[in-house]
Amino acid sequence: MRLSLGDRLQPGRWLGRPLGLLTLLGVLALLVGVAQTPPGHSVLRDTGLVGSPPVYTSLYFTDPGGLPSTVPSGHVALTVSFSVHNASSSPNSYQWTIQVVRGNQQTPAASGTLTVPPGGTRPENSDLAAFCPSGDLQVVVRLAAPAESIDFRAACSG
Questions:
Q1: Diameter of the chain by CA atoms?
Q2: 93 and 114 in contact (C-beta within 8 Å)?
């Protein structure tokens, strides 16, 4: 039996041969194995077949249930506990500030810098003083970059 060029290019014709099928399976196994290595992941990301791992920052109160809903009127001492999570592959430094807001008046209460390792979380406990004669008191925790903030409100009682 003589094969022409057209016979060799027909889809599925060479898969009927055991050696061709074994070769195809071997090449597929090799490609799958290479794709599991760091260089393989890089190639898959570069070609757009796989997305990059997510990179983000999370800012949250460490114990949201422990935040006060009321504070005594007058001068009060508060401890604000928050955490920063770094979901990236490199360490990040975060500048943070805490402000006490009463009406339109914002008062800086505390500030600092947290360095968080890749994939890590770092808690911060900040003691601050506030004046709450009446009405509501708002405490705002802000990160400079990325620009994120969280806050809580407490009623001044008494």
A1: 103
A2: yes
| CATH label, 56-157, candidates 3.40.190.10, 3.55.30.10, 2.60.40.10, 3.60.140.10 | 2.60.40.10
* Model pLDDT for residues 12-57, shown as the tens digit of each residue: 555 556 777 778 777 777 677 666 777 776 777 777 776 667 789 9
The structure's pTM equals 0.69
Give, in degrees to the nearest 5, the angle at Cα 98 between 144 and 119: 50
Torsion of CA 17, 22, 24, 29, to 10 degrees: 170
Alpha-carbon gap, residue 104 to 97, rounded angstroms: 18
Question: For the segment 93-152, what is each residue's pLDDT rounded down to a tens digit?
Answer: 999 999 999 988 999 999 999 999 999 999 999 999 999 888 999 999 999 999 999 999
Instruction: Report the alpha-carbon distance of residue 158 to residue 72 in Å, rounded.
Output: 6
Look up residue 36 and give its two tokens. 């599991």
Task: Give the CA radius of gyration of the chain.
Answer: 30
